[in-house]
Amino acid sequence: MLAIFDKSVAQCPEGLQSPNPESVFALKDGILAQHFSSIHPNAVTINLGQPGFIAYSSEKQNPLLPRLFAVVDDIFCLFQGHIENFATLKQQYGLSKSGNEVNIIIEAYRSLRDRGPYPIEQIIRDLHGKFAFILYDCASKNSFVAADPDGSVPFFWGADSDGHLVVSDDMETIKKGCGKSFAPFPKGCFFTSSGGLRSYEHPRNELKPVPRVDSSGEVCGANFKVDAEAKKEPLGMPRVGSAANWSSNY
Fold first, then answer.
1. Given the DSSP bridges, would you call strands 142-147 and 189-192 parallel, antiparallel or unpaired?
2. pLDDT (tens digit, 9 = 90+) per residue, 144-189?
3. Which of 71, 49, 83, 66 has its CA nearest to residue 1?
4. Where do the domains of the chain lie, and which CATH numbers do they carry?
5. Can you give the pTM of this predicted structure?
């Protein structure tokens, strides 16, 4: 799975950008989408317009960590992994018999967006299992990315030459688009357009970038760690409707 988001919908953390990026213009002319399609001939690529694009392939899957893709009411979601308490959550969110893990993520997101206020951290903590997902909501222009606390699914993010955010489960694709400006997506964390990167295990703590150094001694993106001494105010999820101007809250 792959997503590239324009800076207007996802501000890439500065710590991800290497001084010597060796990256490409991933959105320009669809370069990275073409690369993804070349290594996954049956991939589905969806152009979101100015916000970016997402791509999905069911090839070369780990049977224990399958990939899923769904679109509901212009909410696009890519999911990889397995949710252990799926039956409980399926009942909680009122899904039909045909519902699966990716539908759980979409319904959980819609609960946050439309029917809050629920702590976003608690919603993700309620997902027990091995997972990583990428969600984009066309209505609110909000991106939502998360990974489980153990980093069970190979999952990476980085910055291209224009500073656009790139997220994928494929390291070679990330390297193609981001050069040295990439890192594993932080375990137990989530990223949203409105709130940036946060830890759902330690929601009141800031995250600080720790530079990654490759075998040649060059800085290669950054790992983000919880700063035990730095606190921040809780954030919510932007809600859809006529009542709110969310920009004043962030």
1. antiparallel
2. 999 999 999 999 999 988 889 999 999 989 988 888 889 999 999 9
3. 66
4. 2-249 (3.60.20.10)
5. 0.86
